[in-house]
């Protein structure tokens, strides 16, 4: 199942349709499913709020119907979430995610070493998908590490999860994507701290964290210095942009120019925005008028989810996005100290997923393609409803 979110087309649509129909049937026929679904109401409500706001934006700006393709996915995953009200085999789901991490990490290695691709991009998406591919991989790595740390994980399964962490991390490093890798560090540290506080095994956690960090540093400093060079180039690229006022063709310079143009669009339309997916139209007009660098005319999104929302719908859209991230984060954070290990583990998974997306959203768009948005909705809604089922079935005192 997790592999379905890493590919596009017919392979993905059929399983998703079957899961959606199953979820709708469960909600219509099973009182236990409806009760568990309702216990996750804050997460469900904020997802519906975002969908309704996008529909209102579509109507007010009289946009093309294709603009609603991605927002409409929310309805699909609201139905799919009901499947998590069933007593699913969590071990099978965890193994599925780790196997997906191994497969995608191996695909990254194959693209780099066999095909000579400079920045691997995964199974679809093309050259521009390297950043979202890295974020996707690192989310799977975090989930695999969580399973490896759980005390009830079988020894054979634990080795598979550890392998998923190693292969997935290596594959992510090969993408040379600075934003996701920098975002991964604090989220991974948070996972280690949470596990240490819960298990009281501080020394073991410290050794594991140090081994992971040293391993990543060794790989990037010896075998793949491209990432180190990309990181050290950042100050020079910023200084060059500040001096020349142009993107100068650098990745950082182009981002800064896109952010400046996005802020300009927001300043002109602070309450209503210019409409969903209209940044590309706006930036081409500004480039033609000489108000923006022609080097960014090829981009259709400003490489920041927060700026994207401000451009598309002004301050109200930014508020909706912040709620879309903060409400589920609060829902999961309240369960991190739950005495039942399955509930606490599911909450930790939810916090990590949202943490990765929220941090990556500063330097890239994380909801503008079906693959990363599908993973977010599937995990956040599924984990929330799964916690609702566990709480509903909690033994009475």
From TrEMBL:
Membrane topology: Multi-pass membrane protein
Cellular-component GO terms for this entry: membrane
Pfam families assigned to the protein according to its UniProt record, in alphabetical order: Wzy_C
Main location: membrane
Transmembrane segments: 12-29, 36-53, 65-86, 93-113, 128-146, 158-175, 204-223, 310-331, 343-368, 374-390
Compartments reported by the entry: Membrane
UniProt superkingdom: Bacteria
InterPro entries recorded: O-antigen_ligase-rel_domated, WaaL-like
Keywords: Ligase, Membrane, Transmembrane, Transmembrane helix
GO molecular function, one term: ligase activity
Stated name of the protein: Lipid A core-O-antigen ligase-like enyme
């Amino acid at each position: 199942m997790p592999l379905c979110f890493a590919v596009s087309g017919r392979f993905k649509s059929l399983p998703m349709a079957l899961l959606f129909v199953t979820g709708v049937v469960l909600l219509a026929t099973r009182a236990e499913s409806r009760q568990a679904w309702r216990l996750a109401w804050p997460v469900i409500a904020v997802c519906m709020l975002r969908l309704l706001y996008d529909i209102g934006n579509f109507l007010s700006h009289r946009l093309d119907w294709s603009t609603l393709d991605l927002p409409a996915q929310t309805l699909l995953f609201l139905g799919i979430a009901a499947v998590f009200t069933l007593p699913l085999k969590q071990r099978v789901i965890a193994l599925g995610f780790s196997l997906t991490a191994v497969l995608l990490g191996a695909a990254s290695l194959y693209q780099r070493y066999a095909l000579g691709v400079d920045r691997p991009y995964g199974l679809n998406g093309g050259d521009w998908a390297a950043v979202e591919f890295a974020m996707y991989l690192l989310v799977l790595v975090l989930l695999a590490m969580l399973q490896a740390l759980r005390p009830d994980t079988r020894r054979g399964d634990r080795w598979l999860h550890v392998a998923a962490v190693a292969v997935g991390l290596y594959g992510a490093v090969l993408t040379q994507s600075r934003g996701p890798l920098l975002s991964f560090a604090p989220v991974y540290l948070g996972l280690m701290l949470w596990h240490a506080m819960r298990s009281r095994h501080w020394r073991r956690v410290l050794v594991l964290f140090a081994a992971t960090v040293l391993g990543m540093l060794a790989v990037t400093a010896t075998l793949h210095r491209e990432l180190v060079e990309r990181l050290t180039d950042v100050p020079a690229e910023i200084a060059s942009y500040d001096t020349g006022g142009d993107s100068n063709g650098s990745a950082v310079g182009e981002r800064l120019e896109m952010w400046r143009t996005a802020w300009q669009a927001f300043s002109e339309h602070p309450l209503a925005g210019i409409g969903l997916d209209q940044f590309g139209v706006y930036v081409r007009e500004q480039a033609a008028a000489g108000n923006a660098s022609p080097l960014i005319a090829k981009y259709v999104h400003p490489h920041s989810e927060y700026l994207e929302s401000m451009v598309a719908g002004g301050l109200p859209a930014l508020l909706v996005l912040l709620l879309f991230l903060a409400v589920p984060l609060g829902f999961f954070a309240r369960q991190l100290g739950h005495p039942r290990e399955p509930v606490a583990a599911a909450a930790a998974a939810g916090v990590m997923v949202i943490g990765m997306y929220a941090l990556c959203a500063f330097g890239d768009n994380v909801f503008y393609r079906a693959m990363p948005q599908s993973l977010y909705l599937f995990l956040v809604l599924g984990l929330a409803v799964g916690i609702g089922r566990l709480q509903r079935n909690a033994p009475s005192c």
